[in-house]
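Q: Give me a backbone?
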Amino acid sequence: TTETTETTTMTSDAMAKVSEVFWHTFEDTGASCWCVRVEDEDGESTTMSITKSVPRARKIPSDGGERPVLVSGEIRLLLAEWDDRTRIDRARRAKAKLKAAKAA
């Protein structure tokens, strides 16, 4: 389950909400790790592993009762990674929105 507390942060060109850290198992691979859900200004959300941006999270077991709490620098690193991963899709959606607005 995902915690409801979120952090809203401005990236280079978008507002994004970052959920609290939660343990997630990816259905396609069966791999499990600490993740966050990042939601953009349009409500599109992406589940991201935090282990690349927050290496200390690899050392925290899922059953230890302890959950990583992200500090602002780690959130900035996660959002930079999210921005790199989703920039093209977000630009395409913005362009389609603009085109639809002009057509209306």
